[in-house]
Amino acid sequence: MKKVLLLGAGYANMKLLTSINKEIFSQVQWTLINNTPYHYKTIALHDVASGKHNRSVLFPLKDVLDRRIEIIEDYVERIESHTVIAKNGSYEYDYLIVGLGFSSDSFGIPGVVQYTQSITSYNSAREIQDKITQALQRYLQSKEINDLSFVVCGGGFTGIEFVGSLAQELKKQCRSIGIDFSLVKIYCIEAMPKILPMFSENLMHVALQKLTELGVSVLMGSKILECRQGCVVVEQNGKQNEIFANTIIWTAGVKGNEVIANSPFFESARSKVAVDEWLQPTKLNFTQQDSHTQEILESIPKLHNIFIIGDCAAVKDEKTGRFYPPTAQISAKQGEYVGQLLETLFHAQKTNQEIQKDSLPKFEFEARGSICSIGQGYAVGVVNNKEIKGFSANCLKWLIESQWGFALNGLGGVFRAD
């Protein structure tokens, strides 16, 4: 029986496994390797880091996936031709779907790795929340003012959603333990001249006003030169300034998973693999022993055995010539698409047909829009080319995100308490 190996339980692979024809699970051996026993809603991790949510973003894999799928908890380290090397073993495959998540990108700025924390997983978000709580508790003992200073580096989607949620949650926590919230300093640092660059100037100013109301100081046009212990060095208007804080969160950039960079089998840049219209790598580096396999793949225009989906896939928008930004929306669409291709492929094998790539539909994607929450009860965004803001935008965002939980786990996935 052919072996299908899936790496990562993010939006891409979860959509693939929950949308594909269930009869396929009896025809082929399916194995999913993930470093945790659950899938988590990446789009809600900023609320976990701020302390607003906790376990409600988790979905145990054994509860939401078909029982015929083997689930292995392991840490993938490297990918080779026909083999995946993990911490606890090696796994062979006939077909490989790489759906690993993202990692933080420091852009080579000194001190980022050593002195900041990033929201890249559920565990990292929980660690940030613990660090915030510890800073508040330390202040009660030492009265060290920098324990009440919090810096968020990056004014993109994640940074703005996190800093908005953080401002609201810090106010609640300060009230509950007797800290004067007026002493708290919350900064959002952005190198570009505007935050939320995907939105219009109008929406940016709406977001800025809301953040100001929440007590956030937004520093735009502030290039981060270095992160130090308890300090961020920035350049503003040609001058260097130091912003002091004992809690520094890095949301300024992401790249693909480090596993890609550790796998010479792939041609990659920033841990992302360039893929073609069928979400297959445009180039693979075969060893001398695999030269025969390479000749076959290069000479026959048919689907080969590897797909890259989610945050590790560099997918170009043919209309603009730019790469699509990594979002849950495009990842889920990729998973659904590859699931359909696999259905076609396995059916053709069953009936001894040969499939040519050009006869198959190519991956297409058109973003439906995006909505950025700014604290509880408020959001800004664009849906179907129409700008929206305020409470109604927040409600729409909640409804859209709740669809994912419902699809995975019924209403329990939407209304589970922390």
Sheet bearing the most strands, described? 5 strands, parallel
Structural class from helices and strands? Answer: alpha/beta
Indicate the low-confidence ranges by residue numbers.
295-301, 411-418
Estimated share of beta-strand residues: 25-35%
Mean pLDDT metric: 92
What is the overall number of helices?
13
CATH architecture of the largest domain: 3-Layer(bba) Sandwich
Tell me the number of structural domains: 2
Tell me the CATH superfamily of the largest domain.
FAD/NAD(P)-binding domain
Level of helix content?
25-40%
Number of strand segments = 26
Give the CA-CA distance, first to last residue: 41 Å
Q: What is the name of the CATH topology of the largest domain?
A: FAD/NAD(P)-binding domain
Shape: elongated
CATH class of the largest domain: Alpha Beta
Strand order of the largest sheet: 5-2-1-9-22
Q: What radius of gyration results from the CA coordinates?
A: 23 Å
Description:
- The chain has 418 residues and is of the alpha/beta class.
- It has two domains: 3-35 and 74-102 and 256-352, FAD/NAD(P)-binding domain (3-Layer(bba) Sandwich), CATH 3.50.50; 112-252, FAD/NAD(P)-binding domain (3-Layer(bba) Sandwich), CATH 3.50.50.
- Helix content is 34%, strand content 25%.
- It contains 13 helices and 26 strands.
- The protein has helices at residues 11-19, 24-27, 45-50, 61-64, 112-115, 122-142, 157-177, 201-214, 258-261, 291-299, 328-350, 391-409, 412-415; strands spanning 3-7, 29-34, 38-40, 58-60, 70-73, 76-80, 83-86, 89-92, 95-98, 103-104, 117-118, 149-153, 185-189, 216-219, 222-228, 231-236, 239-244, 247-250, 254-255, 268-269, 272-274, 306-308, 313-314, 369-373, 379-383, 386-390.
- The strands form eight sheets. The chain has a five-stranded parallel beta sheet with strand order 5-2-1-9-22.
- Strand 20 (268-269) and strand 21 form a beta hairpin.
- Helix 1 packs across helix 11 (328-350).
- 41% of the residues are buried.
- It catalyses: a quinone + NADH + H(+) = a quinol + NAD(+).
- It is an enzyme of class 1 (oxidoreductase).
- Residues 3-335 form the FAD/NAD(P)-binding domain.
- Belongs to the NADH dehydrogenase family.
- This is NADH:ubiquinone reductase (non-electrogenic).
